């Protein structure tokens, strides 16, 4: 079946108008929950559909059924699967079926993101190692899994998804992969720290990007956050040093300094 036929067929159905593609532990759950309070934004059956990373074998009919039937052209729908940004096959797959999609990306200081991600996996019962040990073993854990994912597109690796603490924070590598398929105009890239400090301003930026009416929420409740000990300052500085060249490349690539030097 040709790509044009697939796209025409899919366009007859309710399709996502936007995707929040990541990054994990950067505010995606909070943002999605704010968006679906808007009367013009109708939610998917679940926030994280994970079709283009984990469930691609289920096929497009299954994906269509994750979204509501829209009775008005004023309504839009979307989902938020933060593994999409990191998954090597997701951008190609998404471009094949919804090439005009609007893409929202939240990026957080990669040290804070990694530490939050680690504690999330500990709470989920999937990470038995200490943070230091997990960081030391990350490359040996991920390398064979990535090789298998690239070799077999239908291979799903919980290790690659769950234990990628440093790799997911090398944002520039991921964005370059995405921008091989999509134009810069299709992205809204948000600094998570700005979202946390001024959710109203960022929420309105997102509404403007999506082309829906402005809305003021009564409150901006944080979702999917947890309490955990503060990261050791020496180890934090080591991680800041590790990420510095990747952050600098990101700033140069996007033309924006995110200020993640502390």
From TrEMBL:
Q: What is this protein called?
A: Sulfotransferase domain-containing protein
**Gene3D superfamilies this protein is in?**
P-loop containing nucleotide triphosphate hydrolases
Specify whether Transferase is a keyword of the entry: yes
Task: Please state every residue range assigned to the domain named Sulfotransferase.
Answer: 16-227
Q: Which UniProt keywords apply?
A: Glycoprotein, Transferase
Q: Which organism is it from?
A: Metabacillus bambusae
SUPFAM superfamilies recorded: P-loop containing nucleoside triphosphate hydrolases
One Pfam family cited in the UniProt record for this chain: Sulfotransfer_1
